[in-house]
């Protein structure tokens, strides 16, 4: 990665990382260290008040966007987070994701930021994650990212979301 790109991305990533809560940062570190993070599952009474819409993600290649959303939907199902589908009319929460890939020394880091909105468009919370991986065949950008990496990102992200939703339900 050249110095110009790093000088532009570093302040952006630092400002985004400042938007996470200590709990989500701790979970990211645990997942990044290879230790399993038990999936948070909403209880049926809590889940009945939630309908999540996954908005189209920004920054992911077209080839990987569909598998990423499919992984997110699977992870939501595993965590008992009801999905609202493509319509915001019955959604209680809207999840919007923003992604970038940084390549360095044959490896890649996928950076994801998820904003959680209410149906009126008010941002309620922000989650972020960095997933380091080896680039496939030394490829740069999204062609170097394996589908397994997307699965890991989806699992970590939905785990973080489930924990946040749990704290919101417990606080009411």
List the helices and strands and how they pair.
Elements lengths: L2 H15 L4 H11 L11 H4 L4 E3 L7 H17 L14 E12 L2 E11 L5 E12 L12 H25 L1
Parallel strand pairs: 1-2
Antiparallel strand pairs: 2-3, 3-4
> How many beta-strand segments?
4
Class of secondary structure makeup? alpha+beta
Overall average residue pLDDT: 78
Instruction: Tell me the span between the first and last alpha carbons.
Output: 46 Å
Helix and strand element order: HHHEHEEEH
- Approximate helicity band: 40-55%
Sheet having the most strands: 4 strands, mixed
Q: In the CATH scheme, what's the topology name?
A: Rossmann fold
Biggest sheet, strands in spatial order? Answer: 1-2-3-4
Low-confidence stretches: 1-37
- Assembly type of the shown chains? single chain
Number of helices: 5
**Strand-residue fraction?**
15-25%
Count of the domains: 1
Please identify, by name, the CATH architecture.
3-Layer(aba) Sandwich
Radius of gyration: 16 Å
């Amino acid at each position: 990665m050249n110095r110009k790109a790093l000088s532009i991305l570093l302040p952006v990533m630092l400002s985004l990382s400042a938007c996470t809560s200590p709990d989500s940062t701790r979970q990211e570190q645990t997942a990044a260290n290879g230790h399993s993070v038990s999936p948070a599952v909403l209880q049926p009474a809590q889940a009945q008040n939630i309908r999540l819409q996954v908005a189209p993600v920004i920054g992911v290649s077209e080839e990987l966007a569909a598998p990423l959303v499919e992984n997110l939907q699977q992870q939501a199902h595993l965590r008992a987070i009801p999905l609202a589908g493509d319509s915001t009319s019955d959604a209680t929460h809207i999840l919007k994701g923003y992604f970038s890939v940084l390549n360095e020394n044959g490896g890649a880091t996928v950076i994801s930021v998820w904003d959680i909105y209410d149906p009126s468009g008010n941002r309620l919370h922000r989650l972020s994650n960095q997933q380091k991986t080896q680039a496939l065949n030394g490829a740069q950008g999204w062609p170097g990212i394996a589908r397994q990496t997307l699965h890991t990102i989806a699992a970590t992200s939905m785990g973080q979301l489930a924990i946040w939703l749990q704290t919101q339900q417990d606080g009411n």
